[in-house]
Structures are given as C-alpha cells and as structure tokens.
Amino acid sequence: MKVTPFYAVLLLILAVAAGSLGAFATNRWLAQEDTSRGMHDFVHKELRLTSAQEVRLGALERNFAIEHRKLELALRSANAGLAEAMSEEQRYGPKVAAEIDEVHARMGDLQKATVRHVFDMRALLDPAQQKAFDREVSKALTSDPKS
C-alpha cells in the first residue's frame, strides 16, 4: 500500500487522538491515586484506629491492591483494543464504538471496586470515625482535583 499524504495526515491525527486519550486516562488515574493516597493517609493518621482496626484494614488494603491492579490491567488492555480498532477502521465505526464501550465497562468495574472498598473500610470504623470518614469521602468526591 502506497502511503499518500492523505493517509500520512490521517495516521498522524489518529496517533494524536490515541495519545490524547492516553494522557486523559493517565491524568484521571493519577488524580484518583492522589485521592486514594489522601484517603489512606486520613484513615491511618486522623482516625486514631485501634490496633485491631489497623490489622483488619491492612488485610482489606492488601486484597484491594491486588484487585485494583487486575482491573487496571484490564482497562489498559481495553485501551489497547481501542487503539487497534481505531488503527484498523480509521473512522468511528462499529469496532471503535464497541471498544469504547469495553473501555467504559472496565472503567466502571474499577470505580465499582473502589466504592466497594470504601464501604468495606467504613465498616471497620466506629460511629464517630464513620462520621469523619464520610465527610472526608464527600470532600474527596466533590472537590476540584486541580486545587
């Protein structure tokens, strides 16, 4: 196949689009990790956990880290599928649309697992700790990540 200027420009546009999507996704993941780190620090430093709570929380965190990594890898795989479909179809066609749905499904799986983990952590807390935790979760979900 001869690479015409049209195809060269089209490939450049696709590469920029895929790169932009990757940068956007990376920024979202990093913001989520910053929020997770902030919540982690808050729970361990501000809530004055008992040693029993620390042990139970440690087990929850180890299990969630494994699940989170697995879900991140599934999301990366879905992004790779999207990149392949974009390269193959070179337009917003049925394969691209299906791969976008797959990316969204994997993002949803990651978000659902994170929310389940938040509720699992909350269940370890006493009522006073839960109130403080709930305020911090609400703040993390509603604050501007850029500020």
Automatic annotation (TrEMBL):
UniProt name for this protein: Periplasmic heavy metal sensor
Superkingdom of the organism of origin: Bacteria
Pfam families per the UniProt record, alphabetical: Metal_resist
Entry-linked InterPro entries: Metal_resist (IPR025961)
Signal sequence region: 1-25
Record keywords, A-Z: Signal
